[in-house]
């Protein structure tokens, strides 16, 4: 089963997430939240190290896309920086719950140049996040 999680405040920037089991408890325990925070911080660090972090914020309209990963209005890197990282921080700081499943690394493998070590590290950090959350089927 696939669900869509709104991850843009007041908008429709979506990421695809699956639900592991309809009766699975929400992922809110502190150890999981700390590990998720580590993954998100690593994604941000790797974006900065790869010189992919941007100073210019996309327009609110661009971030309000209803398309998964805002693919019609943002680059994947912009989606990571302006949608994924802030939304995951919000969820973690609020004590969860985190998504039931995640498959962001697959998209990263397609959109990033994994032959470049800096970009491969972004994919690895997202794969760690996916593994922690559970990979969407």
Automatic annotation (TrEMBL):
The protein's name in its UniProt record: tRNA pseudouridine synthase C
GO BP: single-species biofilm formation
Occurrences of domain YqcC-like (ranges): 38-132
Organism, scientific name: Salinisphaera japonica YTM-1
Family annotation (Pfam families): DUF446
Transmembrane segments: none
Record InterPro entries: UCP006257, YqcC-like_dom, YqcC-like_sf
